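We emphasize that the prediction below concerns an isolated chain of 439 residues; any contacts that depend on oligomerization or on bound cofactors are therefore not represented. The input was used exactly as deposited, without trimming of termini.
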Amino acid sequence: MISIEHLYDLYLAHPVISTDSRKVSPDSLFFALKGTSFDGNRFAAQALASGAAYAIVDDESVVENERFLLVEDVLKALQDLAHHHRMQLHIPVIAITGSNGKTTTKELVAAVLSAHYPAFATKGNLNNHIGVPLSLLSIGPITEVAVIEMGANHQGEIDFLCQIAAPSHGLITNIGKAHLEGFGGIEGVKKGKSELYRWLASSNGTAFINRDEAFLEELAKPVTKKVFYKRSDQPSLAEVDLEIKLLATQPFIRAAFLDRKSGHLQEVNTQLFGAYNFNNVMTAIALGKYFKVPAEKIIQAIEAYIPSNNRSQLVEMAGNRFVLDAYNANPSSMRQAILSFRAMEGKNKIAILGDMLELGEESLSEHEQIVQLAQAQHFDQVILVGANFRKVAEQHELLHFPNVTSLKGWFVQQGFSDRYFLIKGSRGMQLERLLMETE
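Result of the prediction step, given as a token string:
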């Protein structure tokens, strides 16, 4: 069995990690991970033939020569290697978690910090027990600050990721109704997400706390080092808190903050739709100010950020405008999206809402509440998609489709023009396919 110390020496010589034998990077370390329907050990020889330097395996029967490195458990070896690497890094490691907005916040924070420092941030949403180790092992020697996203859908997950990543700083975007089934209700979400605070408390780390979000101050009480920020109509340099002003939400978020160097209010014109994105922008400004990023660099970084990956994207197609927010959905984010769509300038609005998944016993009541909210906005039409919305749709006599394929068949026949659409649903609903020209 190879030790983590020996494996780390090999990692330093071959600092690229591969986990898919079909996409092996030359001279990389291939980790033969297992899944529900595959065993990476079976593909270790193929990975080596494709250019990997070594293959880390946990099945002795596949070992053919010294390029096969045997460990007790490949996943644990990957996690232990990532932790060992992190402990050699004497830089701020900022953990970001929360029910909503963590990926957008991560992208904005990373953009701001990257404007002034060699920075690293989690790619995409590699935020779980495999993604976090892969992210840590992607941090190079010139990096001066790292931003690590952490996702969770059950108790203990954030604590486990903190043990691997050992963050020095951290923030929770918010506590909302997400993954209720796995967490066991909103109290379970509070307990699970606040594992980050408990880690920072035990390790003397620093927590960034948005005073405008419910529960966060109370949950962060055990943390000694805290940086507070909040919305203020009259930002002041004299206050303890970092204060940011909301100037407008239409058509995009506009914000302002005081530059300590000049003493003047600095304006930021973003390309982000929806009032709910103000908190994400505010967080990025607050962290930029804390880490002493010059005001002009904060502004440039945020103004250059364009949302992607089906997150609050504004899409114009066939004479219509779409708010495409189909990356994920839960009752909290669905409510925010509906209200922001209602406030959006324009007429002829149609809301297309897909199922919210992983809500457990509260699923029916939460879907009912969302439909009531949507109907109260007096949109031209509310269209529902998915099995969880079926019963509610019948009760309210709303147009309903079992999936996006059936929705698209109907949609293309309507010949819509000069309409505004909100497209919002959980990742599993794949509502973005509605706008794809080919399937």
